[in-house]
Amino acid sequence: MTENALAVKIARRIRSEGPLTLAAYMAIALHDPDLGYYATRRPIGAAGDFVTAPEISQVFGELIGLWCALVWEQIGRPDPVILAELGPGSGILASDLLRAASALPEFRCSLRLYLVETSPVLRAEQQRRLAFADPVWLARVEELPAGPVLIVANEFLDALPIRQLVRGHRYWSERMVTLDRERGFVFVNGPENPMLSVFVPETLSNTAQPGEVFEFCPAALALGAAIGARLKHDRGAALFIDYGYVAGRSRMSLSALAHHQPVDVLASPGNADLSAHVDFAAFAHAARGTGANTRGPVPQGRFLAGLGAAGRLAALSERATPNQRRRLESGVERLLDPAQMGDLFKALALVSPGLPTPFGFDFAETQR
Questions:
Q1: Tens-place pLDDT, residues 292-310
Q2: What pLDDT, on a 0 to 100 scale, did the predictor assign at position 366?
Q3: pLDDT of 248 above 60
Q4: Helix, strand, or coil here: 51?
Q5: What CATH number corresponds to the domain at position 111?
Q6: pLDDT given at position 1
Q7: What is the rounded CA–CA span in Å between residue 349 and residue 157?
Q8: Which residues on neighbouring strands pair with residue 332, listed in sequence order?
């Protein structure tokens, strides 16, 4: 392992305190305030490590803006209304959303933009792109002021730290990160502990074979519970779009990306993006447990198509050059195609009790 300053810091902590949980390792690697991945670099775009839907096509953010406007109508057209984006990245989604919102002047004038972001690098980029909207930055969703709220989060949940449990011969053990003899980071299983079974779905706990791995994300569950409680008392909705699965299952999905290529998760902390597939069922269950209703999840392709992706593409193509038209068509196809992002990525809505099903979810089975 090529040591860097953050690797030295993590190694020092392991030597002092013992092996770290995977969640602790991820939290340091991604969010250390001085040396973490999000504190030191611009990760998004061709020059970064990954590309998200807003960079692929402006249609994405514009349709999210339409969705927010339709929900605003459903909650009684409040003025003001909080528009909060969690993990706004480069600010492109919010910029496209607000441009689309300008077609409805009353809606646009009612919006008060809040950005939940901890990265100083990304905050600076968001400031450059979104200064016209007078955004307010927060570190946590719990800091949002009271009142009607619209929350948007694209590829936010997948970057939250996860834990991994490994089925032993009798009980589950926790996967940890420690040092090998060459001072490189390696995974090791902690001792088997009967108390860990409380985190595992009963169906899996009864059928898992030795060596099977179960991932879960405490931070996502806490976030779902916090937003569910908020929506119980303040009218509004939250839209989460991410890649993941619906039914709980035994799997390992943790991965690392650097320069758009997969790399070893432990090779160079702070120099690669770490993420894991989202357990939408668990996240939705946490939100319902504190008072919200949930709609979906539905495949991203079907969600965007239901909001009018084809019509918006056609309208943009009318004013585009042939090269621009090809790029527009390629971008929208990537978002909708089941073989690309259309099925892997899913949309989930959390809504206040008593509100109608939001647009884009009305064809799906709903849960209350």
A1: 999 999 999 999 999 999 8
A2: 40
A3: no
A4: coil
A5: 3.40.50.150
A6: 41
A7: 14
A8: none
DSSP-assigned letter for residue 366: E
pLDDT at 223: 98
Measured CA to CA, the distance from residue 338 to residue 351 in angstroms comes to: 26
99 found inside a domain:
yes
Neighbour tally for 319: CB within 10 Å: 8
CA angle (219, 44, 294) in 5-degree steps: 40
Instruction: Give me the numbers of helices (H) and strands (E) for the chain, helices first please.
Output: 14, 17
Q: What residues are paired with 116 via a beta bridge? A: 86, 138
What does the angle CA 161 – CA 224 – CA 138 come to, to the nearest 5 degrees? 75
Give me the amino acid identity at 274: L
Question: Tokens representing 280?
Answer: 């939408």
Residue type, 56: I
Question: How far, in Å, CA of 54 to CA of 58, rounded?
Answer: 6
Per DSSP, 44 falls in state: B
Q: Which domain holds residue 138?
A: 45-159+226-242+282-367
Is pLDDT above 80 for 356? yes
Q: Which two tokens stand for residue 170?
A: 């009798």
Q: How many structural domains does the chain have?
A: 2
Band (pLDDT 50/70/90 cuts) for residue 214 is very high
Same-domain check for residues 170 and 77:
no
Q: Which two tokens stand for residue 261?
A: 């290529």
The model's pTM is: 0.92
